[in-house]
Amino acid sequence: MITLSLIGIGTGNVDHVTLAAVRALNEAEVILLPRKGEAKSDLIDLRRVLCEQLLNDTASTRIVEFDLPTRDGERQYLSAVDEWHNAIASVWAELMDKHLPSGGRVGMLVWGDPSLYDSSLRIAKRLMDSGRAVEVNVVPGITSLQVLTAEHKIPLNALAEPIQITTGRRLRERGWPNDAATVAVMLDSGGAFTTLPQADTYIWWGAYLGMDKQCLIEGRLNEVSEEIIERRAALREAHGWIMDIYLLAKQPLI
Fold first, then answer.
1. Contact assessment for residue 198 and residue 220, using Cβ atoms and an 8 Å cutoff
2. Residue 103: predicted pLDDT
3. From the candidate CATH numbers 3.40.50.300, 3.30.450.40, 3.40.30.10, 3.30.950.10, the one assigned to the domain spanning 144-249
4. Which pLDDT score is estimated for 39?
5. What's the rounded Cα separation, in Å, for the pair 185 and 205?
6. Rounded distance, CA 230 to CA 225, Å?
7. Disulfide engineering: 5 pairs with which of 45, 137, 187, 234, CB 3.0-4.6 Å?
């Protein structure tokens, strides 16, 4: 039996890693760290640092790095993601067979929390559906959405009002979600908020949340949209990658 722990590690800040996550890391016999290409080398560097800082000196945990399969950007999105997840599941299975042939405990470090726009749980299910003896353990982590609201010092929702979490793709395709007073937008390739009424919408934007290079901008869209787009482009150019998120509302949240 393989016990696979999906360990939420927050946004890269060691102070955001829970005691439960630290315990799960130290209980793992093998920790798998994915490499996502040279442009995103910062991401595996942060994972390495977390392991160095959080693993006990007496821990016998082995760190195993692997190259993450890439998604076909030319195919239809959902089918490309489905094929991509199959490829990742196959890599995980090969690594488990190689490094824990008799079973044991494997740890995977997941940005934020495994429940929020992360596919680790779906990939793990493919392993279980294939007939492998895999038990999944989930350790929750602080999400970028929590860090965003904390850094901007705002609540997530307007008083007694609903919120919807969506993607940049959906915001572009469908506009403002029905009945949502507040909208949290993730996985935006850039500027989906420009499709909304600019004078009537507030935005709280953040990039590299929890990291040393964190960047925050807030205000009415007609005042800050251009600034966000320009800053985002400059940051992506400087670092080779970007992770950002934003909250939208029709009125100030506090």
1. yes
2. 94
3. 3.30.950.10
4. 58
5. 10
6. 9
7. 137
Read off the tokens for 62: 């082995």
For the chain (254 residues), the mean pLDDT of every run of 10, in chain order, is 95 90 95 79 82 85 91 82 92 95 95 93 93 93 96 93 94 92 94 92 96 95 97 94 94 88
Domain ranges of the chain: 2-139, 144-249
Q: Reduced to 3 states, what is the DSSP secondary structure of residue 87?
A: helix
Two tokens, residue 23: 């315990």
Q: Which two tokens stand for residue 167?
A: 């993607």
> Residue 254: how many CB atoms within 10 A of its CB?
8
Using the 8-state DSSP alphabet, how is residue 102 labeled?
T
Rounded distance, CA 90 to CA 16, Å? 31
In CATH terms, the fold of domain 2-139 is Cobalt-precorrin-4 Transmethylase; domain 1 (3.40.1010)
Are 156 and 182 in contact, with CB atoms under 8 Å apart?
yes
Residue-wise over 44-78: b if at least 16 C-beta within 10 A, else e? Answer: bebbeebbeebbeeeeebeeeeeebbeeeeeeeee
Place of tokens 């080398």: 41
pLDDT score of 55: 92
The pLDDT score that the predictor gives to residue 184 is 97
